[in-house]
Write a structure and sequence with these properties.
Layout (H helix, E strand, L loop, with lengths): L7 H15 L3 E7 L5 E8 L2 H13 L9 H8 L3 E5 L14 H6 L5 E9 L4 E10 L7 H52 L4 H16 L3 E8 L4 E8 L3 H6 L2 E3 L5 H8 L3 E5 L5 H5 L20 E10 L2 E10 L7 H52 L4 H15 L3 E7 L5 E7 L5 H11 L9 H8 L3 E3 L6 H5 L3 H10 L3 E9 L2 E10 L8 H60 L8 H32 L7 E4 H18 L3 E5 L6 E4 L1 H17 L5 E9 L2 E8 L21 H7 L5 H11 L3 E6 L5 E8 L10
Parallel strand pairs: 18-20
Antiparallel strand pairs: 1-2, 1-5, 3-4, 4-5, 6-7, 6-11, 7-8, 9-10, 10-11, 12-13, 12-16, 14-15, 15-16, 17-19, 20-21, 21-23, 22-23
């Protein structure tokens, strides 16, 4: 019977029952624990009243090991003990009760007890006390022998049960450890798969609910500069409760807030309905708290909240609610602490990962926008037409920023310019209707475009109000158009050029996932700034063209007006010189020659201005004809030699020995050479002027060299600019329009050639003209 079960409690009951069956009316069995104190006491009796007495006595005065008799004496000595306990009022009996327990047991009446030690393999493990009730019933040697054998077998059975119990506990500990490791491994794997803050919080909550059997829970992270808790995950709560606690103060009297605020676990029980209130609502006043809380009367729920901390810094918390009062055991607390520690690490890792992802995304977006702005610069530079620039800006904006764009500009002439674009070109007719809504108008001074153009300050509308069309415009068509486009968010930016507001541009988003913010505003302002510069350049270019045309028209008219009377003066001077109207003396003839020379010089200046005016207006024409190269150069001698002789310079011609016919515009070549020769004579006071003409691989090369004042290296290119002079003193000293070299270069280019110069101050200058021998064929140079 004793070996039928290895359960310790069952074995103890079986030993007590055997004792009753063989020798006793009642029995008490004491078993020592690992620490050497009494760990188990089992009582049995044939009569219920006797059993009640035994249990009351044990409850009031537990068996102790410091006595001299009974179980204490048997355990210490290792020998059986027999005692007789009289009635409390029996003065005839010699033996008296030893202690309070004996006095309570005397209620059984006079009885005899025999206490036999339970001796195991290495030590005494307890004692069994048997009693016979009645004054005449005592134990003899046979009873002692039976009890000793029973004690021996009982000790063996108890040792086996104890070993089994120890093994069972060890196995349960091992199983709990394996289960805990599996839980932790599952937690680690789940957290490793969570990459965002939201995913980590949902994983923490799911693992906690599953492991601890909570009915509700929530996870929040500290935000708002450490002043708030933002709810990131919640289970077991109504939508109203979750919405009410999307964000709450760190000072709130909520378990989650207190855990995050204090950095310590929070516990409690309450009388709320279910687990919802315990996880996300204030616990009732007077609620019990503590990790080992036992359910007080009336309490029907409990909660626990732990902080999520890393390196001493609390970054969030998790709270769990239970529909009943729960007492977490050691393994559950260990798991919850591990969950909080690993969850905090995963949460911080996710925050850093998201921050890195945001930084990468922002850097990539900034890079894309920089490249886009560079492309925009190139596109803006491709045209100087004002309307084209505005349309380019509208089209670029819908590629990189908005879904549709509206632009308004009022130029200095009072003309109003508009441009629109939509990412879906089929919707651009609707955008034109909306443009009427935003367009500045005297009747709508508070319209977005008008207000920004007036104040020069940008406006960001995160979400366009539903009644924006009604508040800005009373045109049903425009209101319907803006509704059909689904406008959601807008940015309106002024176009500013040289400190002046010249217009405004509106960028509108129609997508629910795109609401404009600070970075979008910065990008829009930069795009518009570059566009405004391009638009202003177009305006300046148009103004320059108008001014240049006016100048060319003025020069042409004035040149023609001057040439008419000058032609008459030269004609009359020639008539007088030929003595058609009468004889003249030598002095008069000399004066007439002076008049004619000055007139010819003035005529050449006028021709320079006329040529320049025709070139500026694009009216100069090329007239090709075959001509002998020597004859072409010789024709310049007649016109330049008088000027050379007047300054007493030497004029040298270096020409090909053989005739050479070329095809070109002879008049323009003569004008080029005369302009260069006149310039050389003008700036040469002594020495020579040389004109050479040679053929070089299909090109004709003319060189005009002088020994004049020369040109500094800094001024070599500027001398070809119209009306340019190195010093105003030179203009006063040498005279001239400052157009000769400019006209010469432009005519050379028209003939398909090039004009270059080499010079040094005080060492003279050399001008080189290269033109095709057969005009119309491009030059081939290395």
């Amino acid at each position: 019977m004793l070996g039928a079960s290895l359960n310790l409690d069952t074995t103890l009951d079986a030993i007590a029952q055997l004792a009753l069956d063989h020798t006793a009316d009642s029995c008490t069995l004491c078993l020592l624990g690992d620490g050497g104190s009494i760990a188990h006491v089992v009582s049995a009796a044939r009569e219920p009243a006797a059993l009640e007495i035994l249990r009351r006595a044990e409850a009031r005065h537990p068996t102790a090991l410091d006595g001299l008799h009974g179980a204490a004496g048997a355990i210490r000595s290792g020998r059986p003990q027999v005692r007789r306990i009289p009635r409390p009022d029996d003065s005839r009996e010699a033996a008296a009760p030893e202690d309070e327990q004996d006095r309570m047991l005397s209620a059984l009446g006079p009885h005899t007890s025999m206490c036999v030690p339970l001796i195991g393999a290495r030590r005494t493990i307890g004692a069994i006390t048997v009693r016979r009730h009645g004054a005449r019933r005592t134990f003899d040697d046979d009873d002692l022998e039976v009890m000793s054998e029973l004690a021996r077998r009982a000790a063996l059975a108890l040792e086996n049960a104890r070993l089994y119990h120890v093994a069972l506990e060890a196995r349960q500990v091992a199983e709990r450890a394996v289960h805990r490791m599996e839980r932790l491994q599952q937690l680690t794997e789940a957290l490793a798969c969570a990459h965002t803050v939201g995913e980590v919080c949902e994983t923490i909550l799911a693992q906690a609910l599953d492991a601890l059997g909570a009915s509700a829970g929530a996870v929040g992270v500290v935000s708002g500069g450490g002043r708030e808790v933002e709810l990131c995950a919640a289970v077991g709560h109504s939508t109203q409760v979750v919405d009410r606690h999307r964000r709450f103060s760190l000072e709130a009297e909520l378990p989650l807030a207190r855990a995050a605020r204090t950095g310590e676990p929070q516990f409690g029980t309450g009388t709320g309905d279910g687990g919802e209130a315990s996880a996300l609502a204030e616990p009732p006043r007077g609620a019990a708290a503590g990790p080992d809380t036992i359910d007080p009367a009336g309490h029907r729920q409990s909660w626990v909240a732990v902080p999520l901390a890393i390196e001493g810094m609390v970054i969030g918390g998790v709270s769990l609610g239970f529909g009943t009062v729960r007492r977490l055991d050691g393994d559950e607390w260990a798991y919850l602490r591990m969950l909080a520690r690993q969850g905090a690490q995963a949460l911080e890792r996710a925050r850093l990962h998201q921050a890195e992802q945001r930084s990468r995304a922002e850097a990539a977006a900034a890079q894309r926008r920089l490249l886009f702005l560079a492309e925009a610069n190139a596109l803006f530079a491709s045209s100087l037409d004002l309307s084209s620039r505005l349309q380019q800006l509208a089209r670029l904006s819908v590629e990189a920023l908005a879904d549709y764009c509206l632009i308004y500009m009022d130029d200095e002439a009072g003309d109003v310019h508009h441009a629109i674009a939509h990412v879906d070109r089929t919707k651009e007719p609707l955008v034109r209707e909306v443009e009427r809504l935003f367009r500045p108008h005297p009747d709508r001074p508070n319209g977005l475009l008008a207000r920004v153009a007036r104040t020069g300050r940008p406006v960001v509308v995160p979400v366009l109000p539903a009644d924006i069309a009604d508040r800005i415009c009373d045109e049903p068509v425009a209101r319907e158009a803006i509704a059909r486009l689904g406008s959601r968010s807008a940015i309106v930016v002024p176009l500013i050029a040289r400190g002046q507001v010249i217009g405004s541009a509106a960028f509108v988003s129609t997508r629910l996932d795109r609401e404009f913010g600070a970075s979008d505003l910065a990008f829009a302002e930069e795009l518009v700034r570059r566009a405004a510069v391009a638009v202003d350049n177009a305006r300046l270019y148009r103004a320059a063209l108008d001014a240049n045309q006016s100048k060319a028209n003025f020069l042409a008219v004035m040149s023609h007006e001057l040439r008419t009377p000058l032609t008459a003066i030269l004609g009359y001077a020639e008539l007088l010189g030929e003595e058609i109207v009468g004889l003249i003396n030598d002095e008069q003839r000399d004066q007439l020659l002076r008049i004619r020379a000055s007139g010819v010089h003035l005529m050449s200046l006028i021709e320079e201005i006329l040529s320049f005016a025709r070139l500026e207006a694009g009216q100069e024409l090329i007239r090709l004809e075959p001509i002998d190269l020597r004859a072409l150069v010789e024709a310049t001698r007649v016109l330049i030699e008088p000027l050379v002789m007047r300054k007493k310079l030497r004029y040298v011609l270096d020409l090909p020995s053989a005739p050479r016919v070329i095809t070109t515009d002879a008049g323009k070549v003569r004008q080029i050479l005369l302009n260069l020769l006149s310039n050389a004579v003008k700036f040469t006071d002594a020495g020579e002027v040389v004109l050479s003409a040679q053929e070089d691989g299909g090109e004709i090369v003319f060189e005009v060299r002088d020994t004049g004042i020369g040109v500094s290296a800094d001024d070599l290119e500027q001398i070809f600019e119209p009306f340019w002079q190195a010093e105003h003193a030179l203009t006063r000293r040498f005279g001239g329009t400052g157009l000769g070299l400019s006209v010469a270069r432009r005519l050379t280019v028209m003939l398909g050639g090039e004009l270059s110069v080499s010079s040094a101050v005080g060492a003279g200058s050399t001008f080189t003209v290269r033109i095709p021998a057969n005009a119309g064929q491009p030059l081939s140079r290395m």
